[in-house]
Amino acid sequence: MAMRSQVYEWANLASGTGTSNIRRTAGSSPVAMTSGREYDIFIGGFGNNITKPAETTATQFVVIEDISASPHNGSAVQVRINTTDYFQNPDVTKQDGIPGLASPYPVGSPSSIGLTDTVLSSFNLYPDVYVLPGQTWGVLYSCQSDVAVGAGGSTVVQAFVKYTLYDGPDALIANKLLELGVTVNPNNVDWYKRTLIEQASAPANGGEA
Questions:
Q1: Is position 191 within any domain?
Q2: Residue 199 lies in a domain
Q3: Closest listed residue to residue 139, CA positions, set 50, 204, 33
Q4: CA-to-CA distance for 2 and 175, rounded, in angstroms?
Q5: 186-201 vs 169-180: helix axis angle to the nearest 10?
């Protein structure tokens, strides 16, 4: 497949005595998270993880379309491409990223543990975030208050990312659209394909087919 939409859901859940699992398993329990620390939701060693960093090959192009996090505990999510954080303050100083109160996951979660309110999304990731061929990227979770576990109660926090992976010829088209200043999305990639086919099938020099 040359173009596919993918989602990744992370939570601070692990089984046994460890702090992470390669996949979500039954009977997993929350693990503690420390405030002021950034956790890579892919390979950070806490919760459900994958085995290698998120990265693009020379023939791949990724478009990140949505990110969100639990609204409680001051949770936030940040996108990092290579070594650069995508969301920064106006003076280019560091910030935590998009707060879960603006982009909650799941939508409708309470703003704090024990409350019955519902938090709706007020943030839309526009324009989308582009990860170019050969770049490494990650989504970082952080919290402003410790996520506790133990006899006094355990808290589950989550993060979510949705993205589209363009591979092979579709990645070449995505790069071309970027050069043209056209938004990279599946509809525009298909439009460019149709344009190429129409040009290839058009009679030469305006003659009749």
A1: no
A2: no
A3: 50
A4: 14
A5: 100
**pTM score, whole prediction:** 0.90
Residue 142 lies in a domain: yes
> 158: which 2 tokens?
């989550």
Q: What's the number of domains the chain is made of?
A: 1
- Comparing CA positions, the residue from 97, 94, 83, 93 lying closest to residue 161 is 97
Residue 112 placed within a domain: yes
Domain span including residue 101: 3-168
Instruction: Round to whole Å and give the CA distance between 193 and 100.
Output: 38
Query: Phi and psi (nearest 5°) for 97?
Result: 115, -145
Per-residue pLDDT tens for 73-109? 999 999 999 999 999 999 888 899 999 999 999 999 9
pLDDT one-digit tens code per residue, 14-26: 988 889 999 888 8
Closest CA to 156 of 148, 145, 164: 148
